[in-house]
Design a protein that fits this description.
Elements lengths: L2 E4 L5 E2 L8 E4 L17 E3 L6 E3 L7 E11 L2 H14 L5 E7 L2 E9 L4 E6 L4 E11 L4 E3 L3 E6 L7 E2 L7 E2 L3 E2 L2 E5 L9 E5 L6 E8 L5 E4 L2 E2 L5 E4 L4 E4 L11 E3 L9 E10 L4 E6 L2 E2 L1
């Protein structure tokens, strides 16, 4: 059974809600994530040699039509269901989570066109068919499992650190100054990193290095005990204590490091100083 949860509205296509309304799909085999977003076609004839130049590097937005039906215990309940459904699929972006056998992903969507609601039977049980176009500026599908890993600032004694963060899934085995990150999705995953100093030692000029290539994210800053820095690689943000108003973006230089599809990478943590500090990473498997 394929189900679709519409944000925090309490409506799940494929189930009965707390008001006694049964929500279902149109047709027998729903394929809600189809079609996949098309690549942005940025090509042109090459005037100086054979062939053409190609700058197609990105996908367009995700669009599809959510189609189904609702059966309510009364005509009044059907009208109330319509109000809740329109509120759930409005212009405010919401998290659409679709659960299929062996596959659980979500995307951020909003209403993208004119919806349709047609009453089929006003008698009890009342029934209506609906269709609403949805649009998402981010075309990617994200796993509902948040993967995490962490390591400590390298020391001369070495050691093994595996801090367990329930209920998150800890995938990487952390050694002193190193951790392994893996992406089994079909698109690049963009980790969010966090640097936490120890109780009494500041972190000075931290560096996050991709061991296999030497590519690095370097930061010209000092993080005092009690503070922390968050590095959002997808959105190119460096935030002090997680606050948008405390941007440290100007302190960054280097490469924003992603996890390519199928990649398993060793990430190294270093800096001018930072004994006892922790570098942690969180990411989701990503598909199109």
């Amino acid at each position: 059974m394929t189900t679709a949860q519409l944000g925090d509205s309490g409506i799940t296509i494929g189930e009965t809600d707390s008001f006694g309304c049964r929500w279902g799909w149109s047709g027998d085999s729903p394929d809600p994530w189809s079609p996949s977003p098309s690549p942005r076609d940025v090509t042109g004839e090459n005037a100086t040699t054979h062939g053409a130049w190609d700058a197609t590097e990105f996908y367009g937005p995700r669009t599809f039509s959510l189609e189904g039906f609702v059966v309510a215990p009364s005509h009044e309940a059907l009208h109330q269901a319509k109000t809740r459904f329109w509120a759930a699929c409005g212009l405010r972006p919401f998290e659409l989570r679709i659960i299929e056998p062996g596959y659980d992903r979500f995307a951020t969507m909003r209403r993208g066109g004119e919806p349709s609601w047609k009453e089929i039977s006003p008698e009890s049980p009342a029934r209506a068919n609906f269709s609403v176009p949805l649009w998402g500026r981010d075309p990617r599908l994200y796993s509902t499992v948040l993967h995490t890993a962490s390591t400590r600032f390298p020391t001369t004694t070495g050691g093994l650190e595996v801090p367990l963060q329930v209920p998150f899934e800890l995938d990487a085995v952390a050694t002193s100054g190193e951790m392994n990150l893996q992406n089994t999705g079909s698109e690049d995953a963009w980790p969010v990193y966090r640097i936490d100093p120890a109780n009494s030692v500041p972190v000075v000029d931290p560096v996050i290095v991709e061991a296999a290539t030497g590519r690095a994210m370097r930061f010209k800053l000092t993080i005092n005990p009690g503070d922390w820095v968050t590095i959002d690689t997808r959105n190119h943000l460096v935030l002090g204590n997680g606050e948008p108003g405390a941007s440290r973006r100007s302190s960054f230089y280097g490469d924003w490091l992603s996890l390519e599809p199928g990649a398993s990478k060793t990430i190294r943590y270093a800096g001018a100083s930072g004994d006892g500090s922790t570098l942690s990473a969180a990411w989701r498997m990503t598909d199109i």
